[in-house]
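Design job #97: recover the sequence.
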């Protein structure tokens, strides 16, 4: 009996089903061929044109519609992942929306109705989750059968935001880091929205205004005096990046058969001076360029050269791309990132911290992304869209690790380099709650925060970076075995999951990828118990490790130390909720610590303390940390004020703090010791919201001039006092330098006793209360409202009286104008950015990160100096207005401080005269100060 023959259509469908199930990596030709004809506006604010999408149905089902990503619409508002620290860096000019509109659809050259286009919001689990109109669906006039090809035409207009990120324009550079024209989803059925984009073929016609240059994928077009149309055909990429510049400096060099180019807007390049002009067998110059010049072009090309050399040594015969193009742009979202064609680097890459020990971290960041770009052709042949970027970044991370060991000599962490300076508040914050640009670059953990997820292959899913996969395989197999696994992967002919399966087995491999290819699990490790068991003349140390939170299987290293100073690292395999590790030595247990190299990521949500506070049997003390350094200088009274404070606490301890504070002012000098206990929610991993505690100290009050009406002559004497006090406060602001929202208040009460210089016994009770609130209607605009009350009882000397003339109260009045025993005040400020972040470099180490203006108005009332009368009377009511400048500085990339200049004018009393008592007892009427100018330097944490 003859077999029935399959009809050609069914045969084609069967082949397509097989290819679709196996993964897009098996496709010979990209399923999408895009032809883009577009023009950018003269001011770079928008790009518009047409796109023709030749789409082959590579699914097993007929398609009734074509789903498209409208990537810019996810940036219609500042990303929810931005906080008060980062939003002002990414949006230096204030909030600026991006958008994409599509119109005039056609299918196979035939126009479609406007209603054929439907729009919908961001599908789960995309970022940001509430973005609107991110998906467009074009309904077809008739289904597109499996294997058939159709052509979809659209007009589009993309608004480019003023944004210092991979998608935006700032400082003469427009970066369109993918997604700037509508592109189909990888799964044309529209169901698997989380798949990263697959490779498509793109032909581009881009019209540039006069005086502009561009990088299109890996092609560089230097600026021209005339308007022109650039043409690039046959680009195969997952996302097409275009960078447009008004100035362009290009350096190119052959590095081991790869043509490397560095493109910058900074026209200050010097030709590199090589340390050694001999050439190795690979054709690479021996050694790095002369790093003393800090030539960005030379240093970057040196990193590319070394990365090529390391990769060829690890994977001989690997096929590398012909070109690697590095483009420098005003990006603040990431120091280095893969642009899908070029490598996009921030213009801060070599200028943020021009210190070699810091640039070492920047070398590694660049080597990692360059490495992932170099292996992209190999990975693209092995992987489908889901694992392509993960696998490439894992190999790039491994190359960066080898770069650290072979080029720099050894791996180092921020703690290794800066731990000695832990007494500085910026270093303390850097180690425990960093608030610095590009903080992910300086820490060696396997998991990196990425709240924006702006890459066109990450915004629609929760896939991790490849560094996580590399790190977890190193934990599981050991560093040497994991390194060999990845290099065998790029030398081999099977994808990453198959390579891992051949090493771990099918069941363990499946569990591994299930655990680590989604959101990082929430876990917290802690020591359950640690004890000794005598074993003859020796001791068996037993340490229990407990895991709270999600169930995940990951090895956990424990370092055990004995009293003789010996130590050993022992690993718990991570199975179950808890486990016990043992080590035998000749001395009793001294200390045990979980994860001493900080490779694990622990969740702050699972513990009231810092997640590492329960990782050790004992926590060492931190160096005393400078908690405040405030210097203010009044150019009218010509008398400075200095306040200094230190805090002492254990590492990772958010609850217990001992303080030492002191100050010098025109009224005297003081010193205090205090203890406060913090409680309530964590506002950062270095502080809680609530705090309370006692203090004790001594104050020396200086004699004052006898010019205050209502005080007896004895009150002008100096005095020496001892005091004890209590305080309570709350503060939920997370970014102290320039917070956008939050509320704080503080209450304090103090009892002081002592002796005046004339022998009199003094007893004084005092109190102070202050409340502070913030409201931000937009980026770079904040309203600050604050006020409070101060008062005292007893027999104070003049220098101990309440005064409202203070940098946090009233700034326009001389101190002796506002003396009293009880006072109330209120201040309103409008803070606004005048100069955007990072625009002015003062020296090789110092940047003016932000110049901010502060328009303020304040009022208050204070009682008579001799009693509590006079409150709210006309001559004791005070009002002022003024304007201030806040210079926010960034030194060596991490040290933040503030220089403030305030100009304040009194509005009331209007007569601007006051009565002064002279030495002979007579009175004199003198004009009041018409204005005051104060200068200040503040470092407060």
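Job complete. Output follows.
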């Amino acid at each position: 009996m003859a077999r029935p023959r399959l009809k050609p259509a069914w045969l084609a469908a069967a082949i397509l089903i097989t290819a679709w199930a196996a993964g897009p990596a098996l496709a010979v030709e990209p399923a999408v061929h895009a032809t883009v004809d577009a023009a950018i506006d003269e001011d770079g604010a928008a790009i518009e044109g047409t796109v023709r999408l030749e789409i082959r149905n590579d699914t097993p089902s007929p398609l009734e519609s074509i789903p498209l990503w409208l990537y810019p619409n996810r940036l219609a508002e500042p990303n929810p992942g931005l906080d008060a620290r980062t939003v002002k860096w990414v949006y230096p000019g204030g909030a600026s929306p991006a958008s994409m509109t599509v119109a005039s659809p056609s299918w196979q050259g035939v126009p479609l109705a406007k209603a054929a286009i439907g729009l919908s919001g961001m599908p789960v689990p995309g970022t940001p989750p509430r973005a609107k109109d991110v998906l467009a669906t074009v309904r077809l006039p008739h289904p597109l059968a499996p294997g058939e090809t159709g052509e979809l035409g659209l007009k589009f207009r993309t608004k480019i935001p003023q944004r210092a990120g991979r998608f935006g324009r700032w400082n003469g550079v427009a970066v369109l880091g993918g997604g700037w024209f509508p592109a189909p989803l990888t799964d044309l059925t529209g169901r698997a929205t989380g798949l990263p984009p697959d490779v498509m073929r793109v032909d581009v016609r881009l019209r540039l205004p006069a005086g502009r240059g561009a990088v299109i994928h890996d092609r560089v077009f230097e600026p021209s005096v005339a308007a022109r149309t650039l043409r690039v055909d046959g680009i195969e990429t997952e996302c097409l990046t275009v960078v447009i510049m008004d100035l362009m400096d290009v350096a190119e060099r052959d590095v081991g058969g790869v043509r490397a180019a560095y493109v910058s807007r900074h026209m200050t390049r010097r030709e590199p001076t090589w340390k050694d002009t001999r050439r190795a067998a690979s054709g690479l110059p021996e050694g790095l360029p002369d790093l003393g010049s800090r030539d960005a072009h030379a240093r970057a090309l040196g990193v590319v050269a070394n990365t090529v050399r390391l990769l060829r040594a690890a994977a001989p015969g690997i096929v590398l791309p012909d070109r690697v193009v590095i483009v420098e742009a005003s990006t603040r979202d990431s120091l280095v990132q893969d642009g899908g064609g070029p490598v996009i680097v921030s213009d801060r890459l070599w200028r943020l911290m021009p210190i070699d020990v810091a640039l070492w971290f920047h070398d590694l960041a660049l080597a990692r992304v360059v490495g992932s770009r170099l292996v992209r052709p190999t990975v693209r042949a092995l992987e489908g869209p889901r694992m392509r970027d993960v696998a490439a970044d894992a190999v790039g991370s491994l190359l960066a690790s080898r770069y650290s060991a072979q080029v720099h000599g050894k791996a180092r962490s921020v703690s290794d380099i800066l731990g000695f300076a832990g007494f500085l508040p910026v270093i303390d914050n850097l180690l425990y709650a960093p608030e610095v640009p590009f903080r992910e670059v300086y820490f060696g953990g396997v998991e990196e925060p990425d709240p924006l997820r702006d890459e066109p292959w990450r915004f629609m899913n929760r896939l991790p970076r490849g560094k996580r996969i590399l790190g977890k395989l190193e934990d599981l197999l050991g560093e040497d075995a994991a390194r060999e696994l990845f290099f065998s992967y790029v030398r081999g002919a099977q994808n990453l999951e198959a390579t891992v399966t051949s090493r771990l087995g099918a069941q363990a491999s499946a569990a591994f990828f299930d655990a680590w290819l989604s959101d990082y699990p929430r876990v917290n490790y802690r020591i359950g118990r640690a004890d000794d068991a005598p074993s003859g003349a020796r001791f068996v140390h037993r340490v229990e490790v407990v895991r709270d939170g999600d169930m995940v299987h990951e090895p956990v290293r424990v370092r055990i130390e004995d009293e003789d100073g010996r130590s050993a690292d022992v690993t718990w395999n991570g199975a179950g909720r808890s486990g016990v590790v043992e080590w035998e030595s000749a001395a009793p247990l001294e200390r045990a610590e979980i994860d001493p190299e900080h490779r694990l990521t622990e969740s702050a949500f699972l513990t009231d303390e810092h997640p590492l506070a329960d990782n050790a049997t004992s926590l060492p003390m931190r160096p005393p940390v400078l908690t405040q350094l405030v210097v203010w200088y009044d150019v009218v009274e010509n008398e400075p004020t200095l306040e200094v404070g230190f805090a002492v606490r254990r590492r990772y301890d958010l609850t217990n703090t001992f303080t030492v504070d002191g100050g010098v002012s025109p009224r005297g000098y003081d010193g205090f010791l205090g203890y406060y206990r913090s409680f309530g929610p964590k506002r950062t991993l270095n502080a809680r919201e609530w705090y309370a505690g006692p203090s004790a100290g001594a104050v020396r009050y200086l004699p004052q001039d006898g010019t205050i009406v209502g005080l007896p002559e004895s009150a002008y004497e100096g005095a020496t006092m001892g005091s004890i006090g209590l305080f309570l406060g709350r503060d939920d602001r997370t970014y102290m330098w320039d917070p956008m929202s939050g509320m704080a208040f503080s209450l304090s009460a103090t009892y002081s006793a002592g002796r005046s210089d004339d022998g009199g016994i003094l007893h004084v009770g005092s109190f102070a209360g202050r409340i502070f609130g913030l409201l931000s209607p937009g980026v770079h605009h904040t309203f600050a409202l604050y006020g409070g009350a101060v008062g005292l009882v007893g027999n104070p000397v003049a220098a101990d009286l309440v005064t409202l003339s203070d940098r946090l109260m009233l700034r326009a009045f001389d101190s002796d104008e506002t003396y009293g025993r009880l006072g109330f005040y209120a201040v309103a400020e409008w803070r606004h950015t005048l100069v955007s972040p990072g625009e002015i470099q003062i020296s090789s180490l110092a940047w003016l990160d932000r110049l901010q203006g502060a328009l303020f108005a304040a009022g208050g009332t204070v009682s008579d100096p001799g009693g509590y009368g006079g409150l709210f009377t006309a001559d004791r009511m005070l009002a002022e207005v003024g304007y201030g400048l806040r210079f926010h500085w960034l030194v060596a990339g991490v040290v933040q401080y503030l220089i403030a200049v305030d100009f304040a004018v009194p509005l009331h009393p209007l007569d601007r005269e006051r009565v002064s008592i002279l030495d002979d007892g007579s009175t004199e009427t003198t004009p009041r100060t018409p204005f005051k100018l104060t200068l200040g330097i503040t470092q407060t944490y």
